[in-house]
């Protein structure tokens, strides 16, 4: 038994490792460094591109529940992420270099994985998992288009800048996590009204990098909107979004702030920090001017500027089953962001499911279709629902999970709802796993 996995990103790496530990030989293809993507900066497996955070690890949040479900299903990358974590309050953030290097080392030393660094330009005619990601090469994208007989959808993803911690002025900046939850692991740069208005004025007037003609009609994914696009919606949009000041008070002064810029640790050495929610497509000179207008960052050293790139995904509701198997061809699966699951955690989870189901397919076993009450089950059912006519990429969220009845007085209690939905999901997943034997 032998399987092709196309792409060694988060989904492809997880899928390959799931297959390998089940004794299945894998040809894992990665086009980097021979073919660049425009967003990746290394040739390593499972590289985190836009951010270094997997989101909340709180089991009572949608994203946190998905992580715990992966642990129950014996995910590989989720455990590596925990080993490579850096402080980030309630979130699971990682040292992205350590993480990708660890995954690469494991893959290169796995006897069941043949790691091949070359571009795949046509879909192979034997068992294959396509996890080529949102930055699929043009040649391979054409092959996918011919197979699906449909146009691809496109949206834009933007990357936030990273700066050196040593260049931050801590006479102004302060450490803290929102509402003092978890460790005080974020660097916070406070603004008063005058400082914010100056920042906003620079932002909305800053020149942007020109888009190519084929990019001009593409759509943004809402949770990755460039900060300049958010700002265009109104002067206070950022103050109620990535720069909201609530729950962030400098204990040295006790003052409430008008706006706050947060920075999150990006490496285990604690030398690099990325700006939370500051994805941008501004020209680099403008980025420097904008960031240095932020109190505490007047002399910041930018080690990576923000960029924007096009993401590609298939129309999964017309193409896939909730098992991530294509309806048109039994031995072909898709996984990762190319399916329309948006987010790092979601990419890993879909790779986990595709790897498990490909192994079951090869062994003539029943494929698993996770209950919709689980977060991964809800996510895969959502992206493969034929009734979803206006399909757009989606993160894990409570809106896609079957609701639960709360007492009349508690119907607006979001915390209680999250607790009950998570408890139900974990119980159902464990029962499902026990009923289906070794998954």
Task: Write a compact overview of the structure shown.
With 439 residues, this protein is α/β, with parallel strands linked by helices. It has helices at 10-20, 62-72, 77-83, 96-108, 138-148, 193-205, 227-231, 284-291, 316-319, 344-362, 375-383, 414-435, and strands at residues 2-6, 25-29, 53-56, 85-86, 91-94, 113-116, 128-130, 153-158, 162-164, 174-176, 186-191, 219-220, 259-265, 272-275, 302-304, 308-313, 332-334. It folds into two domains: 2-152 and 314-435, FAD/NAD(P)-binding domain; 162-309, Elongation Factor Tu (Ef-tu), domain 3 (Beta Barrel), CATH 2.40.30.
Give the strand tally.
17
First-to-last CA distance:
18 Å
How confident overall, as mean pLDDT?
Answer: 90
Radius of gyration: 22 Å
Stretches where pLDDT is under 50 for at least 5 consecutive residues are: 212-216
What percent of the residues sit in helical stretches (DSSP H or I)? 25-40%
Instruction: Write down the CATH topology of the largest domain.
Output: FAD/NAD(P)-binding domain
Structural class: alpha/beta
Strand content: 15-25%
Q: According to CATH, what is the class of the largest domain?
A: Alpha Beta
Structure commentary:
- The chain has helices at residues 10-20, 62-72, 77-83, 96-108, 138-148, 193-205, 227-231, 284-291, 316-319, 344-362, 375-383, 414-435, and strands spanning 2-6, 25-29, 53-56, 85-86, 91-94, 113-116, 128-130, 153-158, 162-164, 174-176, 186-191, 219-220, 259-265, 272-275, 302-304, 308-313, 332-334.
- It is α/β, with parallel strands linked by helices and 439 residues long.
- The protein folds into two domains: 2-152 and 314-435, FAD/NAD(P)-binding domain; 162-309, Elongation Factor Tu (Ef-tu), domain 3 (Beta Barrel), CATH 2.40.30.
- The strands form four sheets. It has a six-stranded antiparallel sheet with strand order 10-11-13-14-9-15.
- The radius of gyration is 22 Å and the shape is globular.
């Amino acid at each position: 038994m032998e399987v092709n996995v196309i792409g060694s990103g988060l989904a492809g790496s997880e899928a390959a490792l799931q297959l390998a530990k089940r004794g299945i030989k894998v040809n894992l293809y990665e086009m980097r460094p021979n073919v660049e993507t425009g967003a990746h900066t290394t040739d390593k497996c499972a590289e985190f591109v836009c951010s270094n955070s997997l989101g909340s690890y709180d089991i009572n949040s949608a994203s946190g529940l998905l992580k715990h479900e992966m642990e129950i299903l014996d995910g590989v990358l989720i455990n590596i992420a925990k080993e490579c974590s850096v402080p980030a309050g309630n979130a699971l953030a990682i040292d992205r270099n350590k993480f990708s290097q660890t995954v690469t080392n494991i893959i290169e030393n796995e006897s069941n994985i043949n790691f091949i660094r070359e571009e795949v330009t046509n879909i192979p005619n034997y068992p294959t998992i396509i996890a080529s990601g949102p930055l699929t090469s043009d040649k391979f994208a054409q092959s996918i288009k011919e197979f699906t007989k449909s146009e691809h959808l496109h949206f834009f993803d933007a990357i936030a800048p990273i700066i050196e911690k040593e260049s931050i002025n801590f006479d102004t900046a302060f450490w803290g996590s929102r509402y003092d939850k978890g460790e005080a692991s974020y660097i916070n740069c406070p603004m008063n009204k005058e400082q914010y208005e100056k920042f906003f004025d620079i932002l909305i007037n800053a020149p942007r990098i020109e888009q190519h003609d084929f990019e001009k009609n593409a759509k943004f994914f809402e949770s990755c909107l460039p900060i300049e696009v958010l700002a265009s919606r109104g002067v206070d949009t950022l103050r109620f979004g990535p720069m909201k000041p609530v729950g962030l008070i400098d204990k040295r002064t006790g003052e409430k702030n008008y706006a706050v810029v947060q920075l999150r640790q990006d490496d285990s050495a604690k030398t690099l920090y990325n700006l939370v929610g500051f994805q941008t497509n501004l020209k680099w000179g403008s980025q420097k001017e904008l960031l240095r207008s932020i109190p505490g960052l007047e002399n910041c050293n930018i080690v990576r500027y923000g960029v924007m790139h096009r993401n590609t995904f298939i129309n999964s509701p017309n193409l896939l089953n909730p098992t991530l198997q294509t309806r048109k061809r039994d031995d072909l699966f898709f996984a990762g962001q190319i399916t329309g699951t948006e987010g790092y955690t979601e990419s890993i989870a879909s790779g986990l499911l595709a790897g498990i189901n490909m192994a079951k397919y090869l062994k003539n076993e029943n494929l698993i279709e996770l209950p919709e009450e689980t977060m991964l089950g809800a996510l895969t059912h959502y992206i493969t629902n034929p009734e979803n006519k206006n399909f757009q990429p989606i993160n894990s969220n409570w809106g896609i999970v079957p609701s639960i009845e709360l007492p009349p007085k508690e119907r607006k209690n979001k915390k209680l709802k999250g607790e009950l939905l998570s408890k139900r999901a974990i119980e159902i997943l464990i029962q499902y796993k026990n009923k289906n034997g070794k998954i």
